[in-house]
Design a protein that fits this description.
Shape: globular
CATH class: Mainly Alpha
Structural class: mainly alpha
Largest sheet: 2 strands, parallel
Radius of gyration: 15 Å
């Protein structure tokens, strides 16, 4: 089996191709969520404000529910106001597990 050179694995191009199937609003939401650092969370309201749609927090949640690339677009980093986890298309228990894991990673990274 022939190995492909890493340059041929243009992930960004593939991501953009998949995102063309999304609405402009959804793409804006996904890009804002990608800016949330590892080990940190933001609220649905924060994302809405970040994309210039401060009254669209509920719509942000609906867009995140349609996330086509949950391994690349970290929608689990978006929580409800008041620190509540909010929803997650793969289950709230997994969302909490991912957040705990990322928090532990970021703490370890800071120690280095």
């Amino acid at each position: 089996m022939q190995k492909l050179p890493i340059e041929s694995l243009n992930i960004c191009e593939g991501v953009e191709r998949i995102l063309t199937r999304c609405t402009t609003f959804e793409r804006d939401v996904f890009r804002a969520v990608c800016a949330i650092p590892l080990g940190e969370v933001r609220t649905y309201q924060w994302v809405a404000e970040k994309i210039g749609r401060p009254r669209a927090a509920r719509a942000v949640g609906q867009a995140l529910r349609k996330n086509p690339l949950p391994l690349l677009i970290p929608c689990h980093r978006v929580v409800a106001g008041g620190g509540m986890p909010g929803g997650y298309s793969r289950g709230v228990a997994l969302k909490k597990l991912l957040l705990d894991f990322e928090q532990a990673l970021s703490v370890e990274k800071k120690k280095l």
